[in-house]
Amino acid sequence: MFLLDVDNTLLDNDRVKEDIRAAVASLVAADRASRFWSLYEDVRDEHGVVDFPETLRHFRRAFPDEPHAEDVDRAVLSVPFERYLYPRAMDVVARLWAIGDVAILSDGDRVYQPSKIARAGLLLAARGNVLVYEHKEDHLAEVERRFPARHYTHVDDRAALLARTKKGLGSKATTVHVRQGHYASEPPSGPPPDIAVERIADLLTLEPARFGG
After folding, report:
1. Residue 159 and residue 170: Cα distance in Å, rounded?
2. Tell me: the pLDDT tens digits for 143-157?
3. N or C, which end of the chain is more exposed by having fewer CB within 10 Å?
4. Exposed (0-12), middle (13-18) or buried (19+): which is 87, by Cβ within 10 Å?
């Protein structure tokens, strides 16, 4: 069973955020754009996860007179996520299906993140096998119950989360660090990844035996 992360693993989430930042800056005054991202951080601190819908609700409450509030909503909620997939990400998913089963295992809120996954085409690519948690590293037992397998290969851009998987599943897991995005150089704070690659497309070159099991 392949467990695939989304943000900065299959999809360039850093670029998504940059483009949302540019869109918000083009729609509202500079002080309000700055306040939007301050609220974004407040919500993330409060909920422990990025939550754009809640950020938008806070923004509307902070600026009920904002004439471009609906445009800001549209800029955030209507991102064409399929355009932000990393090169050959879908080819990787297809190849992994030829080796084993595939599931998306993602962090995020329960509204925006599933919508992102679906609109990027990843829900279909994963054949409906999608799990979204606020802190996925705390739900390994639930993942095992949902997708029982002899061996798991966890593919993620965060070495620290891969270390948690390795601690939790031990020899039943192979961890693959895709060094993309702003967490690329994050230390593992635990067992190092079994495999490290520079980009998701590199998984197309690995022999199936490298994934373990």
Report:
1. 15
2. 999 999 999 999 999
3. C
4. exposed
In a 10 Å sphere around its CB, with 0-12 CB exposed, 13-18 middle and 19+ buried, how is residue 95 labelled? Answer: middle
As a whole number of angstroms, the distance between CA 79 and CA 5 comes to 19
- Per residue in 57-110, pLDDT (tens digit) is 999 999 999 999 999 999 999 999 999 999 999 999 999 999 999 999 999 998
Residue 106 burial by Cβ neighbours in a 10 Å radius (0-12, 13-18, 19+): buried
Q: How many Cβ atoms from other residues are within 10 Å of residue 101's Cβ?
A: 14
pTM to 2 decimals? 0.94
Neighbouring C-beta atoms of residue 8, cutoff 10 Å? 23
> Percentage of residues in the chain with pLDDT exceeding 70?
100
Q: How far apart are CA 190 and CA 167, in angstroms?
A: 8
List all residues 6 or more positions away from 170 whose beta carbon is below 8 Å from its beta carbon. none
> Which burial class, exposed, middle or buried, applies to 159 when counting CB atoms under 10 A from its CB (0-12, 13-18, 19+)?
buried
